UniProtKB/TrEMBL annotation, chain A:
This is Cation acetate symporter. Pfam families: SSF. The keyword Cell membrane applies. The lineage of its organism: Bacteria, Bacillati, Actinomycetota, Actinomycetes, Pseudonocardiales. CDD domains: SLC5sbd_u4. The keyword Membrane applies.
TrEMBL record, chain B:
This is DUF485 domain-containing protein. The keyword Transmembrane applies. Keywords: Membrane, Transmembrane, Transmembrane helix. Pfam families: DUF485. InterPro entries: DUF485. The chain crosses the membrane at residues 60-81, 93-118.
Length: 526, 138
């Protein structure tokens, strides 16, 4: 136990799926000519399509495998992730989506550098994007590796490392062929499939227990060492002062980080106007609410039917809860389908991420910093493709190192980075007239630097037996998630640096343009 | 438009355009757009229509942000520091904390729909007014 069915059957369901999506990408991208087509799909998607794709960016391996696994292992403490993910959409809807879409074109750097000195700010924005995407990719790679290991029942670390490498290469191939349009279609298809999948599983589970969540929880408590205590807070985060702070810090990173992720920000550019951008977030919110309600049912369902200990012992650890539950209730076929959907999920998210990272390098660093705005579009796209290859290779290595960690937890680190580097800077630049280049650089680098430093010296990296490097101990920061410190720190850095540096009167015209465009949408697409 | 790629000289260029339009004999209706067809943002920023739009927008989004963050943080802080309270069983084994968490789902839906409605009724008409006055469309 647990045998997870017949590897050949699993693999065939899944290979068929991969081939179908690749075909769609190929078809969708046959007219991928301009830079705008490659990065922003020519801004040609409707709000509804984009909304589903937007939620697709978020219904990632972390959400599906990590959160249901988190709930299956830790009950209430896992549920925090579901709530954070849903509420985070409001940050995107109210504060970011329209203003960003109205002032930017392809990347976060477009918006942050809008009224600032172009080169340093673009370089800073690109650095932040690369670091955040790298951390987020690691989580996806680790999730993909665990999933395939489970499908093929590969238990050796070397075998899993090899799987992560192969999976990573397939994903990079997707981006190279597809660009944004292909990626958006994969997101749409997989978001719909994933939503159907979790909804049907949840309805089935609820039906089995007489449509009573309480009954599912009842049986769940019988299959967890903690018994009824798993339904209360504290199963994962414990009761010490520091662990409570860690819980709060995670919660803060979740709610502020999700809408600050570069690939999510970039998704706001693929709609033709601001009202479509708004509509797409409304669509995404609905999809999210349904999805995260289902993770609650699936998480407790997995605890009830599979049992926490069995999940922890499976290849992939906590991340295997949903696939194991699928096997338990629907045999090899359902496992094959769920795994294929989960894999497509990871594939699509990684494609979106790689694209965001490569766009930020090619568009911000290559075209605007190195070539000073005179890059030939075709060469720019070539640089973007090469960046995709490099980012992909690095994250494969990272994914192998992080193999076995809960992917939702790994993602929360990327979220802390995103909230620290991007959120403060975007909000200041859209809503605060006085904000200037010095402030921008300080809030990006202050947030990114403090967050990165605290992650490196946290128990996540070293010093505990669950660390990525368990054999060494250089940890001095007590929290697993640095958001509680680094997010306020970046706001403070941006504020103080702006106050104590002189204003940039030469940019008054640009500042007026930015404010008018962000708020009214005038001149956003001319 | 290649807004993302201006050269450093472009700002000065626009300033000159701006001064050009401050002259008295230009018809007012034209002054929101310069001779290249680019909107004159500094003038648009000063219009009552724009100020009113900005006020309507900020009047909604900032209080709502405070509201949902406060509600979320209440859930989080209660979960961390008032565990006895959130552990109270309400419906069968479902405790107060889970219900509070699900409550966040409900408030998220309400705020999303509320914003969509507000934007449709209060923001979009104002944007239209501004577009009519300035002759500049999105």
């Amino acid at each position: 136990m647990p045998t997870t069915g017949n590897p050949v059957l699993n693999l065939s369901v899944f290979a068929v799926f991969v081939l179908i999506t690749l075909y769609i990408v190929y078809r969708a991208s046959s007219r991928n000519v301009t830079a705008s087509d490659y990065y922003a799909a020519g801004s040609s998607f409707t709000g509804a399509q984009n909304g589903v794709a937007l939620s697709g960016d978020f219904l990632s391996a972390a959400s599906f495998l990590g959160i249901s696994g988190g709930i299956a292992a830790h009950g209430y403490d896992g549920f925090l992730y579901s709530v954070g993910w849903v509420v985070a959409w409001l940050v995107g809807l109210l504060l970011i989506a329209e203003g960003l879409r109205n002032t930017g074109r392809f990347t976060v750097g477009d918006v942050l550098a809008f009224r600032m000195k172009q080169r340093p700010v673009r370089a800073a924005a690109a650095n932040a994007t690369l670091v955040i995407s790298f951390f987020y990719m690691i989580a996806q790679m680790a999730g993909a590796g665990g999933l395939i290991a489970l499908l093929l029942n590969v238990t050796s670390k070397t075998g899993q490392a090899l799987l992560i490498a192969v999976v990573g290469m397939v994903m990079v191939f997707y981006v190279l062929v597809g660009g944004m349009k292909g990626t958006t279609w994969v997101q749409i298809i997989k978001a719909v499939l994933l939503l159907l999948c979790v909804t049907l599983m949840s309805i089935f589970l609820l039906g089995k227990f007489g449509f009573s969540l309480s009954a599912i929880m009842q049986q769940a408590t019988e299959n967890n060492k903690l018994g009824e205590a798993v339904l209360d807070p504290g199963a994962k985060y414990g009761f010490s002062t520091m662990s409570k702070l860690d819980f709060v810090s995670l919660a803060l990173s979740l709610v502020l980080g999700i809408a600050s992720l570069p690939h999510v920000l970039m998704r706001f550019y693929t709609v033709p106007n601001a009202s479509e951008a708004r509509r797409s977030v409304v669509w995404a919110t609905w999809t999210m609410v349904i999805f995260y309600l289902c993770t609650l049912v699936i998480g407790f369902g997995a605890m009830a039917l599979v049992g926490t200990d069995t999940i922890a012992a499976a290849p992939g650890g906590e991340n295997s809860a949903a696939p194991l539950l699928a096997f338990r209730i629907g045999g090899a076929v359902l496992l094959g389908i769920v795994s294929a959907v989960a894999f497509a999920t990871i594939l699509a998210v990684v494609a979106g991420l790689t694209l965001a990272a490569s766009a930020s390098f090619a568009h911000d660093v290559y075209a605007n910093v190195i070539k000073r705005g005179n890059a030939e579009p075709r060469r720019e796209i070539r640089v973007a493709r090469w960046t995709a290859v490099v980012v992909g290779a690095l994250s494969i290595i990272g994914g192998i190192a992080a193999n076995g960690q809960n992917v939702a937890f790994l993602v929360s680190l990327a979220l802390a980075l995103a909230a620290s580097a991007n959120l403060s800077t975007i909000l200041y630049t859209i809503f605060w007239r006085r904000f200037n280049t010095t402030g921008t650089l300080w809030s990006i680098y202050g947030g990114l630097g403090s967050c990165l430093t605290l992650i490196i010296f946290s128990p996540v990296m070293s010093g505990a037996k669950t660390s990525i490097f368990p054999d060494v101990d250089f940890a001095w920061f007590p929290l697993g998630n640095p958001g509680l410190v680094s997010i306020p720190f970046s706001f403070l850095c941006g504020f103080l640096a702006t106050i104590f540096s002189k204003q940039e009167p030469e940019n008054a015209g640009k500042a007026a343009e930015m404010e008018v465009r962000a708020i009214s949408g005038i001149g956003a697409r001319t | 438009m290649t807004k993302a790629m201006w050269s450093p000289g472009e700002t000065q260029h626009e300033d000159r355009e701006y001064r050009g339009f401050a002259s008295f004999d230009d018809p007012e209706a034209l002054s929101y757009v310069d001779s290249n067809g680019n909107p004159n943002f500094a003038l648009i920023q000063q219009t009552d229509e724009f100020r009113s739009l900005r006020r309507r927008l900020t009047m909604f989004i900032f209080p709502m942000t405070v509201l949902f963050l406060a509600s979320y943080l209440t859930f989080v802080l209660l979960s961390a520091y008032a565990r006895d309270i959130v552990s109270i069983k309400v419906i069968g084994l479902i405790n107060l904390g889970i219900l509070l968490g699900l409550g966040q789902f409900v408030t998220s839906i309400i705020i999303t729909l509320g914003y969509a409605r507000y934007a449709k009724r209060r923001l979009d008409p104002q944007r239209k007014l501004l577009a009519e006055k300035t002759g500049v469309e999105e």
